[in-house]
Amino acid sequence: MIHYTPIEKTVVGQELIRMGRIEGRIEGRTEGRTEGIEKGKIIGKIHASQRFLKRPITPEKKLLAQSPKELRAMLKQLEAMLN
Predict the structure, then answer these.
(1) What is the predicted pLDDT for the residue at 10?
(2) Is 54 left (phi over 0), alpha (psi -120 to 50) or beta?
(3) Quick one: pLDDT at residue 11?
(4) Helices (H), 1-83
(5) CA distances for 42 relative to 11, 25, 28, 34, angstroms
């Protein structure tokens, strides 16, 4: 009977797993940076809008806890008040 060695127990398999983890980390960092930049831009616009409207400035920490979708909705409301 033929016995196969599981791929994860081979040198090649371990290297492929390591490479996949590295690629996953790189992809995760890239996505995180992209979202962080997007959120930062929206937060800056929210703060500017609040200043123009002479409204209380929402703390950055509170805004960072929100999703980009929630931030865009908040910005849309503020921009409607400006127009």
Answers:
(1) 86
(2) left
(3) 86
(4) 11-52, 60-64, 68-82
(5) 47, 26, 21, 13
CA dist 37 → 43, 51, 64, 70 (Å): 10, 21, 11, 15
Task: Name the residue among 64, 1, 3 with its Cα closest to residue 38.
Answer: 64
* Spatial separation of the C-alpha atoms in residues 83 and 4, rounded to whole Å: 69
Q: Are 81 and 73 in contact (CB under 8 A)?
A: no
The Cα–Cα gap between 52 and 72 comes to 18
Q: Name residues of the chain where pLDDT drops below 70.
A: none
What is d(CA 71, CA 67) in angstroms, rounded to the nearest whole number?
A: 6
